[in-house]
Specification:
The longest helix has 17 residues. The strands form three sheets. Strands 11-12-14-13-15-17-16 form a seven-stranded mixed sheet, with helices on both faces. It has nine helices and 17 strands. 27% of the residues lie in helices and 23% in strands.
């Protein structure tokens, strides 16, 4: 039996792998910060072997409350992922599985490899109405890709994966881009006339490659850098924010995943002092239409309005909503399952993330139609 995480986004610490029925592991911290929750590793040589894998430090993770009712993900081919029985006793997270094949991978959520990101950008770059730009480089020199789609005058910005372990966000972007570039889709065709979408599929490519949960290569949480980003600490935000200042923003969506709340929800800007009543009304209408377009989305559960205080305007959606005076939303998806529409086999999944991305076009188009008069 071999356990390894020496690959793109891999992360685990092996303490003992002598006995399949008592594998002892630790969840590894981000490469330059103490955030920890993401894991992704391969177990080899275990066909028809009952595995019991104890993640001993789960109770010390950044969002330990997120382990309640959580089920880990597994795959034989790194394309098709399923849930495996998982228990949490308040400190130790235990995975139970009897693999059918010699090689099996386990992960916190279905990974989105950096190579797949490059494939996505290359594939979409050849589509109609698409132009790909590089806004600058990350800390470690990886390009900050932005996909510009459409030919309309309204600038719409969508960013994903500020927190690299929230891989469902880039799966969402993939679903959104596939619908955008479907030239037979009337919603996409009309939207292309009204707006230009600026889409950053991966805001944190370094953190993604390192297998980090929440930070970039120098340990910075990018979603606390939007007031004063720097080329030294947060060039990823610096370059994207500069590009936004050049284009303006008529709508902004920041796509995330939440470790603890088992629902899909948004967090808006109504708590910002002076945020215009008409923008709050537009925000309400956007979420109402998204709820119609996707039953996976709901508005009953989410963050408390006072969750963020002094740091509020350091967050992407709050900074953009305040600075540009536009509807600006953080969209959150679960790592577990959607309690409104549970799926015991898959939980929240690649496919559901992609479907949600496609559904976003409905409220985006309605918002653009309203702004266009």
């Amino acid at each position: 039996m071999l356990i390894t995480s020496q690959f793109d986004a891999g992360a685990i610490e092996v303490l003992s792998a002598t006995y399949p029925a008592n594998i002892r592991l630790n969840i590894r911290a981000d490469n330059a910060a103490e955030f920890r929750q993401w894991f992704y590793f391969r177990v080899h040589g275990v066909a028809d072997t009952t595995l019991t894998m104890h993640l001993l430090n789960a109770g010390d993770c950044t969002y330990a409350g997120g382990w309640q009712d959580y089920q880990a993900m597994a795959s034989y081919n790194r394309r098709d992922w399923f849930r495996v029985p998982t228990e949490y006793d308040g400190q130790i997270l235990t995975l139970h599985h009897r693999p059918q094949h010699d090689d099996v991978y386990y992960a916190y959520f279905a990974p989105y490899a950096y190579e797949r990101h490059l494939d996505l950008v290359a594939r979409i770059a050849t589509a109609e109405h698409v132009h790909v730009d590089t806004l600058g480089n990350s800390v470690e020199g990886r390009p900050m890709d932005v996909i510009r789609w459409g030919k309309g005058i309204l600038p719409i910005w969508i960013i994903a994966r500020q927190h690299p372990g929230e891989t469902m966000t880039e799966w969402l972007v993939e679903g959104l881009l596939d619908r955008l570039t479907d030239t037979t889709d009337p919603t996409s065709r009309r939207l292309a006339q009204l707006a230009t979408l600026h889409i950053v599929p991966n805001m944190n490519p370094d953190g993604a490659v390192h297998g980090n949960l929440r930070s970039n290569a120098v340990g910075v949480n990018l979603n606390r850098e939007w007031q004063q980003p720097s080329l030294e600490r947060s060039p990823e935000v610096f370059h994207v924010r500069e590009a936004m200042h050049n284009t303006g923003a008529a709508l902004f969506l920041d796509i995330h995943g939440d470790e603890t709340i088992p629902y899909v929800f948004t967090d808006g800007c109504e708590m910002i002092p002076g945020y215009a009543p008409e923008l709050i009304a537009q925000q309400f209408e956007f979420t109402r239409l998204l709820q119609q377009a996707s039953p996976d989305f709901q508005t009953q559960y989410g963050y408390a309005p006072d969750r963020f205080s002094d740091e509020m305007l350091t967050l992407a959606s709050k900074y953009v909503g305040n600075h540009f005076g536009c509807v600006s939303l953080t969209l959150e998806m679960p790592f577990k399952d959607n309690a409104d529409l549970p799926d015991p086999q898959q939980g929240w999944s690649i496919a559901r993330s992609r479907h949600l991305g496609a559904a976003l076009l409905t409220p985006i188009l309605a918002h653009c139609l309203k702004l266009s008069g």
